[in-house]
Amino acid sequence: MMNGHFEKLISIAVTIAVFAALVAVANRIFRNINRRKNSIFYKFLSSFVYVVLVGTGIYSVLAQFDLAREISTVILQSGTLIIAVATFAAQQALGNVISGFMLSSSRPIEIGQKVKIMQGGTQICEGIVKDMSFRHVVIESYDGQSNILPNSLVDQAVIVNANYTEGTGNFLEFEVAYDSDFDLVRTLIRQALEEQPEVTRKDVNILMNRVSANGVVFKFTVWTKTVDENFRACSELREKILKLFGEHGIEIPYQTLDVNMHA
Questions:
Q1: Among 141, 43, 59, 52, which residue's Cα sits nearest to residue 101?
Q2: Fold type of domain 103-161
Q3: Do 117 and 159 meet the contact criterion of CB atoms below 8 Å apart?
Q4: Mean per-residue pLDDT for 143-158?
Q5: Which of 2, 26, 163, 208 is the most exposed place for a label (fewest CB within 10 A)?
């Protein structure tokens, strides 16, 4: 009797050790892969493999107990009703897994991309894709909050992806006075773009976008590889262009109010 219990404990310990080793090896492999290529496909696959290994390990341990085997036999003998109830209860979870496979294989979103999730004309969230598991996608808002969305919701939503094509682009606008040298304005903006290391497209069009009550507005696109680089580049370009305008006498117009006093 004691020998039987001891053998069962040894078998359980070996099973736990084997699956713990498999989980550790799988985690190490996926960490190395994600270090080289931080992809939503490998994020999902890593999460899925982890859940399968842990689930299989727990089942293998429980299967060595007589009570667990008896319960499994009763469930299987109970037939269609229990299977239908279990399937219904797991429907949403299975839907998230299937949607996860669809999203990770078709890749309408990717780690580090700037996206907006829309459903029925309503914006659910907007931000940077940070992570994906077998159940959900994590999108970090610009204020630092994490939006955790089920895979099935993202799969059914309209995804507005600002980075679906290579690179990230954002508009910059500068308003100058009516009597400014417009050719000089374009030259100074072009100079700032040439000197900005993160900018990937130096030959963008610098267009007169509109005429306002105060002056003329020039508009152009700043292209970089990533969203983070774009935020930094736009900030530095604003400062650099304003400094160049000041050095070359380009006036930034602003509203003034004349007050006439009558005695």
A1: 43
A2: SH3 type barrels. (2.30.30)
A3: yes
A4: 91
A5: 2
